Amino acid sequence: MRDEIRRHEHLYYVLDAPQITDAEYDRLVRELQQLEEQHPELITPDSPTQRVGGAPREGFVKVAHSSPMLSLDNALNEGELRDFDRRVRGLLREGESFAYAAELKLDGLSLAVHYRDGVLAQAVTRGDGSTGEDVTPNAKTIGSIPLRVAAQRLEVRGEVVFNKASFERLNQERDTQQLPRFANPRNAAAGSLRVLDPTITASRRLEYFSYFLLENGAPAKASQWEALEALQELGFKVNPHRRLCADVDELVAYCKEWEAKRDELPFEIDGVVAKIDLVEQQSRLGWTAKAPRWAIAFKFPPRQEETLVEDIGVNVGRTGALTPVAMLKPVNVGGVMVSRATLHNEDEIGRLGIQAGDTVLVERSGDVIPKVVRVVKQGETRRPFVMPLHCPECGGSIVRAEGEAASRCINTNCPARLKESILHFAARGVMDIDGLGEVLADQLVDSGLVKSIADLYSLSKEQLAQMERMGDKSAAKVHANIDASRQRPLPRLLNGLGIPFVGERTGQFLADHFGDLDRIATASEAELQAAEEVGPKIAKSIRGFFEEQRNRDLIERLRVERLTFTHQLKEKTSAALAGLTFVLTGTLPTLSRDEAKQRIEDAGGK
Predict the structure, then answer these.
(1) Structure confidence by residue, pLDDT tens digits, 435-467
(2) What whole-number distance in Å separates Cα of residue 418 and Cα of residue 415?
(3) Residues tagged active-site
(4) Which pLDDT band, with edges at 50, 70 and 90, does 22 fall under?
(5) Which residues have CB under 8 Å from 562's CB, separation 6+?
(6) Nearest-CA neighbor of 531 among 545, 515, 518?
(7) Cβ distance 353 to 326 under 8 Å?
(8) Ordered DSSP codes for 321-356
(9) Residue 309's beta-bridge partner residues?
């Protein structure tokens, strides 16, 4: 029965050629589940019933890759692609022939899948290329990743993608649930693979296309083309539109063909990946520090259309930055209806010379983010953009610091920036509230339980436990960490408040000079500049922060919650290092960097 179900999974998920209905498939799986319930000793890790199971996890484990998952250098036009071909010819022996294995460049998330004794053992995201995250329970839910293969030990690398139809269905579901839409299939695929609950991944209908076959971190076949054929024989989904190109002319023709036909595909592509086919030649060509010399990514040019700027509004981002946004007459750009495009800041508006009423050229940068390229025609009745004086979200003051491109709302509790404020406040090295990450912060704000940083201190363990994927044990841990943060020293609190230009170092200098939060809050700009390394720009920012009534209200609430407002002023133990500045990096043999930093400062150094 397991073999029969696996056969139907392969027909459905890999070959796109199902032989039975979904209902018939579900009946087979339910029958297998009943048999395994009656005979639990017969359950195996590669059983189709084991694709989804278990409770949500509390986090992801970091895993080192068997060999680096390097990024590729890009060719942005035909000339750069031919330049790559010339470089390859210069590095190989004179007159030596070679072929290109060309594949469509899928816009997804890279994933390495490991098999031991023929059974799926581990799935690891690309991460930084050297180390990724173990997402094995989530990967098991993807039907096009076999749970068992006819090989003892191997590694398969590939791309997790959302096809266009599944992506649109997901966004429609999020619309009905009043959740924000995913911006593009790549982000949706990455988010779906990295959720802590595998049942969510299972509901998203992700696909996996394989493109590398490795053994012990090295290529398993003599050529890339042989590897792709072997992957297909092993039951993996391999891009069906691949081509073996005898020379660069055939490669250029392949790129042009799929640039024209890309909209016919059921999934998003943003170019073509070309690899020197023979592994022996790849080995001789070698690598740079960041990319192999034997592969190149040909990126398709952005798609562009003209449309009308109907108005220019502003969005308030998670850091309080106000971003001007062009409200466009809806236009189809490469199969996607575009009605808005970021204008970044006032300087960019000035550079473009754009006003409401103008006709502009719009492109999808990287086939994802809409961008205004230039003004095509000025409107007859143009309206210039003026940055508002008060935040459209909360009414707080808007400031633009000298030398900064962005205008910002300085209300720490502004609804638009509250989630980011909480994450910064809770971060390690700030208030160090372990367990209060992005997912929990989003839930606390969206549920209305936290409308200010100060609300964190009135949360109960029971309220935390009611949050999605938060059990009693996790809730108790976060609650204890919130309570412990009351004892964090004043420099950390100053950093956590989110005062523009006041980070860890400046917070320390302010605490060392004034010794008291109230003295800092009432100090004039001139008095603030008496603190070490506090110049006019930082002083003005601090003064502006404490002049905002909403921020003063926050300080009073934190006082009621008994956070640390004072700082012990201390004399330097010596001046042995006076006038010397140290940069600490890497790992020290006998001290942590924080301990070394403290000893340097105690001895008069920086």
Answers:
(1) 998 889 889 988 999 999 999 999 999 999 998
(2) 5
(3) 105
(4) low
(5) 486
(6) 515
(7) no
(8) EEEEEEEEEEEEETTEEEEEEE--SHHHHHHHT--B
(9) 328
